[in-house]
């Protein structure tokens, strides 16, 4: 554990809490892509199967349980409790176009050909692109509420901080994981456009609105 | 080439 890893995890935790609070307080999931949330649920489910086989630390176990539980809770809020507010007309990204290639790639490039390891690799590849339905939705509607922008900023920051964690681990511990590093860089690059808009607009008190 | 995933990171 190092400071980059810890702040990355905390940014991830913060993102999830912001999203849940936004939906709960406004009683609405307007502007939130259910498709991205389905992908995140698939990501956590396939990645954290090792909860039952490998114990790393209490921290590791508790965080995994929180990420799993919160992703299912978010899906419940979007697809059941506040279904009427879900903007499905703008959430039209075809997730099979992300799930299938991520799975094929995991079969081709993985650390080991065991069920858990291939599914872990699949989850890493899928996570790197899981935000695309949400970004697609923002580009389709041309805007995002400020709270949604804060959520996206925290969520994007998490993998960017993990890149610093991987550099630190490479330098200090001579430990690296190429699959996680490359996928994490792809994931962070996808947010760059959004980061730019966040800094130039949302932080100056303006709404995130794309030019028509 | 690839170093093993240590399952520590989330």
From TrEMBL, chain A:
Pfam family, one: ER_lumen_recept
GO CC annotations on file: endoplasmic reticulum membrane
Chain ranges passing through the membrane: 65-82, 94-113, 119-139, 151-172, 178-199
Keyword Cytoplasm: no
Keywords: Endoplasmic reticulum, ER-Golgi transport, Membrane, Protein transport, Receptor, Transmembrane, Transmembrane helix, Transport
Membrane topology: Multi-pass membrane protein
The keyword Cell wall biogenesis/degradation belongs to this UniProt entry's keyword annotation: no
Biological-process GO terms, alphabetical: protein retention in ER lumen; protein transport; vesicle-mediated transport
InterPro entries reported in the protein's UniProt record: ER_ret_rcpt
Main location: endoplasmic reticulum
GO molecular function: ER retention sequence binding
Compartments in which it is found: Endoplasmic reticulum membrane
Stated family: Belongs to the ERD2 family.
Name by which UniProt lists this protein: ER lumen protein-retaining receptor
């Amino acid at each position: 554990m190092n400071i980059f890893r810890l702040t990355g995890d905390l940014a991830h935790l913060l993102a999830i809490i912001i999203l849940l609070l936004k939906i709960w307080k406004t009683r609405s999931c307007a502007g939130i892509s259910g498709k991205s949330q389905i992908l995140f649920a698939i990501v956590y489910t396939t990645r954290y199967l090792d909860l039952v086989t490998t114990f790393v630390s209490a921290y590791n176990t508790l965080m995994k349980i929180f990420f799993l539980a919160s992703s299912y809770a978010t899906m419940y809020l979007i697809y059941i409790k506040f279904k009427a507010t879900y903007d499905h007309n703008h959430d039209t990204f075809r997730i099979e176009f992300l799930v299938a290639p991520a799975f094929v790639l995991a079969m081709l490039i993985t650390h080991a050909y065991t069920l858990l390891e291939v599914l872990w690799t699949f989850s890493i590849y899928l996570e790197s692109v899981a935000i695309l339905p949400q970004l697609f939705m923002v580009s389709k509607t041309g805007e995002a509420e400020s709270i949604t922008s804060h959520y996206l900023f925290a969520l994007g920051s998490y993998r960017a901080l993990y890149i610093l964690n991987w550099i630190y681990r490479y330098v200090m511990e001579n430990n690296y994981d190429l699959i996680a590093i490359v996928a994490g860089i792809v994931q962070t690059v996808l947010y760059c456009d959004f980061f730019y808009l966040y800094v130039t607009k949302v932080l100056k008190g303006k709404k995130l609105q794309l030019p028509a | 080439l690839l170093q093993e995933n240590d399952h520590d990171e989330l």
